[in-house]
Description:
By secondary structure, this protein is mostly helical. The chain has one domain. The protein has helices at residues 3-9, 21-29, 36-43, 48-65, 71-89, 94-112, 126-139, 176-181, and strands spanning 117-119, 122-124, 145-147. A 3-stranded antiparallel beta sheet has the order 2-1-3. Strand 1 (117-119) and strand 2 (122-124) form a beta hairpin. It starts with a helix and ends in an 11-residue tail after the last helix.
Amino acid sequence: MTLEKLYKLLEMDGPEDMEYFEQFADLMDMDEDVPFDLFYMALSGVKPENAGELAENYFEDLSNAAPEDENDLVLLLDSLEENLMHLAENIDDADSRRSFAEQLYRFREWYKAPGGAEIDGEKASVFEALLTARTDAIDGGSHDLTFLSTDEFKLDDASYGLGKFSKIDIAAAPDEEDAADGADPENGAENE
């Protein structure tokens, strides 16, 4: 796989073109082996306003496809979605962008790996089992789907930027509400 081939598969000219759900889903779901450096390059130009929305829509779509009794899988997908949404808030920061891409890539590798699920007793990937669940929902099919332990996929501990802090002097002025009520801001007692 080359970067040029990846961009062609995703219908992109460069990383700044990653803006549509279909491109994001294709990157996550494609059968081709995509090394991390190329995966990262495909996401390196995603706009901050798009990153969170793409992740949110993708993981909601997966959660909706999961069978109702697969609580562990849905919890994992929801937690990962939340984690990625937080990282996307600061995606202009190089560390957050890299963490965003790493989380997605680790998930993709786990999700596409054979043996994470079973379809009618046969080993399959989580991706294949969710695809089968979607197909069954559309055409009324009935396959026996088993999602094996989600414990193998661990979420990274995430750190989130809190922005800039400004020093405030809380003792400088009485609380306006207390002053309007006639309260003494020094001792909390009402003035008489």
